[in-house]
Amino acid sequence: MPCQPPALNDPHVPAVARADIVAGLRRVGLAPGDVVLVHSSLSAFGHVAGGADTVIDALLDGLGPEGTAVLPTFTWGRYHAITEPVVFDLARESVKEEMGIIPETFRTRPGVMRSPHLCHSVAALGPHARDVMGTNGHAWGPGSTFAQLETLNAWNLFLGVGTRSCTFLHHVEELMHVPYREHRHYRGSVFLMPDGTRRPCDSVEFIRKYGYRNNFAKMERIFAEHGVLHVARIGRARVLNIRVRDIVRISRAYLEQDIRFLLDESTHPTA
Questions:
Q1: Which of 121, 127, 163 is nearest to 146 (CA)?
Q2: Distance between CA 38 and CA 71 in Å, rounded?
Q3: How far apart are CA 106 and CA 36, in angstroms?
Q4: C-alpha separations of 242 from 20, 51, 90, 247, 249 in Å
Q5: Which positions ≥6 away from 42 have C-beta within 8 Å?
Q6: What is the pLDDT of residue 13?
Q7: Which distant-in-sequence residues (6+ apart) come within 8 Å of 25 by Cβ?
Q8: What is the edge-to-edge ordering of all strands in the sheet holding 87-89?
Q9: Where is 158: in which H helix or E strand?
């Protein structure tokens, strides 16, 4: 019979500890004072002693008090296709089902700020938290959280997930005005802010037109070939780290050659 991997709770498999994660973050280039956008999967590590809180504590250890952690608290699956206005409770809207336990645990920590966006909010903690909240309601493009992360020369860290999760590539699609996406506004909806006040929803999405699908997984090989991808392993998790400016620079160059480069060629319409 083929050899089976040990169960995640196998007592013979050492648990991933906080220090293990900090050491792994150092191996992929993360340093005190950095700004980092983090995509994550807790289960990818195997067994982590202390669970999501340990991963977050290790991330904050690695960044130090001058660093800023930014985690996606997206609710795209829940709200992008709504047809009636909604009230979005910024303090209570859970992301566990869509984004996982690490972002959900992070967003509820004291001092964490969450940006007001109906589909693509982020949670942030650190000196630059307010800087990455976005200024104009757009998920991507100028004035967005992602534009501000680019200005800050942030990293994009992938803990146990690959570039298929690289939402930063949507930012590049908007910068390039790709023809297979169009803007959608969510006028009429309302944000319930953490202080109890209400404000009109100004969220704007750059949504794919019907029949198109992205293929971001292929960008991992391309980033590696360009020598900008840092790779390590923490427990069972494969960890990637890349500067967001490199994501923008390299993917933009490919889109300049072929505006549909980030699409899955087997599924998108030819018209």
A1: 121
A2: 5
A3: 14
A4: 20, 25, 29, 7, 12
A5: 48, 51, 52, 55, 100, 101, 102, 160
A6: 60
A7: 58, 59, 62, 157, 239, 241
A8: 87-89, 190-192, 198-200
A9: strand 155-159
Give yes or no for a contact between 139 and 148, defined as CB atoms under 8 angstroms apart.
no
Tokens of 78: 């829940």
Q: What is the pLDDT of residue 271?
A: 45
pTM for this structure? 0.93
Longest Cα–Cα distance of the chain, Å, equals 61
Q: What is the Cα Rg of the chain in Å? A: 19
Q: Strand 204-208 to strand 181-185: parallel, antiparallel, or no bridges (unpaired)?
A: antiparallel
Straight-line distance from the first to the last Cα atom of the chain, in angstroms, rounded to the nearest whole number: 50
Q: What are phi and psi of 245, to 5 degrees?
A: -65, -30
Judge contact between 189 and 203, C-beta under 8 A: yes
> Which one, of 34, 32, 112, lies nearest residue 71 by Cα?
112
**What are the structure tokens assigned to 233, written together?**
């392993």
154 contacts 49 by C-beta, under 8 angstroms? no
Low-confidence ranges of the chain (pLDDT < 70): 1-13, 268-271
Q: Is 22 exposed, middle or buried (0-12, 13-18, 19+ CB in 10 A)?
A: middle
- The three-point CA angle 156-233-159 to 5° equals 35
Cα separation of 26 and 20, whole Å?
10
Q: Is 267 exposed, middle or buried (0-12, 13-18, 19+ CB in 10 A)?
A: exposed
In the three-class reduction of DSSP (H, G, I as helix; E, B as strand; rest coil), residue 99 is classed as helix
Positive or negative, the CA dihedral 123, 76, 89, 143 is: positive
State the pLDDT at residue 192.
97
**261 φ, ψ to 5°?**
-60, -35
At residue 84, φ and ψ (nearest 5 deg) are -125, 150
Phi/psi-derived region of residue 175, left when phi > 0, alpha when psi is between -120 and 50, beta in every other case: alpha
Residue spans of the domains in the chain: they are 18-254
